[in-house]
Amino acid sequence: MPALLRAYEFTGDALFRDQALAFLEGWAEYAYDPQSGSFWGSLELDGTPVPGPWAASGYPQFEPRGLIDLWAPEFITAQYNPDAAKSYAQSYQALGDPDLLDTAKKWAALIRDSLPATDTLDETWYATYSSDWAQHGTYAEHYGHIVDFFATLYEETGEAHYLLSARTVAQEAIAALWFEGMFRGHPNKPYFEAVDGVGVLLEALIDLDAQSANFTKFGDFDGNGVVDGVDYQTMQTHWLTSVALFENGDVTGDGFVSLEDFSRFKNDFFEGNRAALGGGSNLIPEPRTLWLALVGLALLRRQDAGGHYSPWRQGVVQASQFGRSRFPPVPNVPLKRWSCGECRRAVGFNCRQSKGAV
């Protein structure tokens, strides 16, 4: 789709535009499955979805069947899902068709529900990847396309929650891929490989950085252009309750107001932007209130570390544990992982809670 749209941009020939629109609108109409909120991996010529399961061998094994496997390794499974999502956002940017924006928003909802990018189908011919590789994250190219996708939606809609999603995915990518002073192509590869799309990720991160001046809009629940005590009171009022996404105290976009929302709200806006916000007493909660909330945050994280799964707490992983068939050999060296969800926003692998690189 980007190639057809670029051809239309350079030549002005409506044939290129019409071909792109025909494909995008047809796929949106027939491939989207409202019941699951996902898309079918392939369609018959009459628009009928091709059901699963995947073929076990032979040439048909490379045909996507059933609903898409969002984070599947695209270059060996013929699935280009992040690229497809990005195509709808960019096509809306170029043509302004509201139907394209509607489909892009459906992609956005699906992607958010599928984060972190650590799950792929295990009943396929690439099951070894699903069990041994996917649990640690996805490829740099996937991360890059998704960051660019959400950033484009923010540019076109002005809705700050899309920028927050772009920032969240970027942080996940950095946490998973930054290793010994470089970006590797996959969390399971302690080396750089250009085919994994590191360049795509780097370009997306650079473009996202240009939006950094808008990051302070997160947490502005009343829409007055500043994150202040009124927004803090909104968070308190809806504490530990379910709310609409990114509203009434939900900073993270999970639909629930919790200590993680407070942590991002405080760290990203009150502390980091205190001077920019004027430093007035009306902008900062009472110190005693913050202290009590931080104590609660520490207790919750301590409990969470003991009983809840998080992909950031997997510790040192020996590459020798990973399957080798169908995949490049991996040197027998430890892969560093984050010790907690909070610290994955730090630069490098140094934990801000003095837990060290794990």
What would a concise description of this structure say?
This protein is 45% helix and 3% strand.
Number of domains: 2
Classified by CATH, the class of the largest domain is Mainly Alpha
Give the uncertain stretches in residue-range form. 279-295, 297-358
Mean pLDDT: 76
Outline the biggest β-sheet. Answer: 2 strands, antiparallel
How many DSSP E strands? 6
Secondary-structure content class:
mainly alpha
> What percent of residues adopt helix (DSSP H or I)?
40-55%
| Assembly state of the chains shown | single chain
In percent terms, what proportion of residues is strand?
A: under 5%
Second CATH tier, the architecture of the largest domain: Alpha/alpha barrel
Remind me, CATH topology of the largest domain?
Answer: Glycosyltransferase
Shape: globular
Radius of gyration: 22 Å
Terminus-to-terminus distance: 42 Å
Order of helices and strands: HHEEHHHHHHEEHHHHEE
Task: Explain what you see.
By secondary structure, the protein is mainly alpha-helical. The chain has two domains: 215 residues, Glycosyltransferase, CATH 1.50.10; 91 residues, Orthogonal Bundle (Type 1 dockerin domain), CATH 1.10.1330. It is 45% helix and 3% strand. The protein has a two-stranded antiparallel sheet with strand order 1-2. It is globular, with a radius of gyration of 22 Å.
